[in-house]
Structure formats: C-alpha cells, structure tokens
Amino acid sequence: MKTSAPIQIAASILAADFARLGEQATEAEAAGVDALHIDVMDGRFVSNITVGPAVVAALRRVTGLPLVTHLMILEPERFIAHFASSGSNSILVHQETCPHLHRTIQQIKSAGARAGVVLNPATPAACLEDILDDIDSVLVMTVDPGFGGQAFIPGTVRKIARIRQMLDERRSSATLQVDGGISAETAPLVVAAGASVLVAGSSIFGAGTRVDQALAKLRKSIEA
Ligand code: DX5
Ligand code: ZN
C-alpha cells in the first residue's frame, strides 16, 4: 500500500561525474534531493570497484545532506567504523554478506549511524522477519547490484508490497527504499507498492538534463 508520508528521493552518486563530484553533490542539494546515496563496491561481492571512506569524508565537507552508504562488500563489519567516522549518517548492509546480521546491525548503531538491510532481487522478504524490529530501513534492490544504468526488474514489485505489509503490521517507521532502474516510468510502480525512498542514479545525474530538471521529472511522475 502506498505510504502517506512524502516520498523521498536519494541521488546515487554512481552516475555522477566523478571528476566534479563536489559540484554534482551541491547541484543535487540545491535541486532538493533528500539524501546522497553512495555505492561502495569491492570487486568481490559485486563485479565492480567504486569508492571508500575518503570519498564519504570529502562529500561530508561539501554537503549537509544525509549521506547513505550502501555497502556492496564482503565482510562489511570490517569497514563500518571507518564509514561512520567519515560522515555516513546511514549504513546499509546486504543480507547476503552478513552471517551475523543482528550483530552487524548493532555494530552500525553503536558507531552512531542508522542501520539498514539490503536484499538482492532473488532474496526473499521472509528473511527480514526476525530483524525488522531492529532496523531503520530496508532497501530492495530492483536490479542485481554492481552497476548503474540497468533495467528495472518488474518481479521485485511484489516483494516491495510484501515488505510494506510486514512494516505496516508492525507499525514500523522504517523506510522502504528501492534501488536500481528507478525512473519516471518505474517510480509510480514502486510507490504504488509502498516504497518510501527512491534511489536514483542515471535518471538524476545521467539524464542529459540539469539535475534540477531531472529531479522535477521524477517527482512529477509520482505526484498523482
Ligand atoms: C547498483 C547501485 C545503485 C545504482 C543505481 O548496484 O546500488 O545505487 O547507482 O543506478 P541507476 O539509478 O542508474 O539504476
Ligand atoms: Zn545503491
């Protein structure tokens, strides 16, 4: 079921021009995005390598936006303290990388950040059953992680709706984020299923328009 709170949009810097990352972050802030989403990849859990805590610290110096760090890395517990002290407000770990998920979530909270769990497209909603009360957000991957610009997987919509139902049953205020292939075409589908935060890279930084125009197009698509 659609949420009544305003839908938030987090801009994924993966699609930004890394040669002018600071400017892109301030453009996104001026345009009114609600958060910056930072994709951390290790070349092991996913087939790509991106950025580490130094980039989070650099962004922290140029923006007041919440910095949400999405860890697509094996053994994320080794890096949680580094990301938190670099300025990550929120740290999201994959269920698939955390054999001791409860402990990892407590570690994120003890480091002073908000904690979230990410599910790959093939990971079932049911695996959240015994961790949902402990987390601040769930992120549903709507593509297989590793790269920006991939096509949205329609089969994930049913899982988003199922997780919305699980959160509502618990009267949980945790955010329900979606990540991958989110555009003016797909945003209405995930919002109708109950997503409360849209993570978007290509449709914000890679749209071939100004960031504010791209954001306006995305917001307009979910107005109704
Ligand atoms: C993919 C990342 C996403 C990515 C989304 O592994 O987690 O955050 O940046 O990019 P788009 O919006 O281009 O699909
Ligand atoms: Zn991401």
Q: What features would you describe in this structure?
A:
This protein is α/β, with parallel strands linked by helices. The protein has one domain: TIM Barrel (Alpha-Beta Barrel). The protein contains eight helices and eight strands. An eight-stranded parallel beta barrel has the order 1-2-3-4-5-6-7-8, surrounded by six helices. Strand 4, helix 4 (101-110) and strand 5 form a beta-alpha-beta unit. Helix 1 packs across helix 8 (211-221). The radius of gyration is 16 Å and the shape is globular. The two termini are 14 Å apart. The model has no long low-confidence stretch (mean pLDDT 97). The chain binds D-xylitol-5-phosphate and zinc ion.
Strand order of the largest sheet: 1-2-3-4-5-6-7-8
What is the terminal separation in angstroms? 14 Å
What is the tally of beta strands?
8
Small molecules held by this entry: D-xylitol-5-phosphate, zinc ion
Please report which band the strand proportion falls in: under 5%, 5-15%, 15-25%, 25-35%, 35-45% or over 45%. Answer: 15-25%
Q: What is the makeup of the main sheet?
A: 8 strands, parallel, barrel
Secondary-structure element order, N to C? EHEHEHEHEEHEHEHH
- Radius of gyration equals 16 Å
CATH topology: TIM Barrel
What's the number of helices? 8
Structural class: alpha/beta
Principal-axis shape equals globular
**Kindly state the mean pLDDT as a whole number?**
97
How many structural domains in the coordinates? 1
CATH architecture: Alpha-Beta Barrel
Q: What would CATH call the homologous superfamily?
A: Aldolase class I
Helical content class? 25-40%
Under the CATH scheme, which class? Alpha Beta
Low-confidence stretches: none
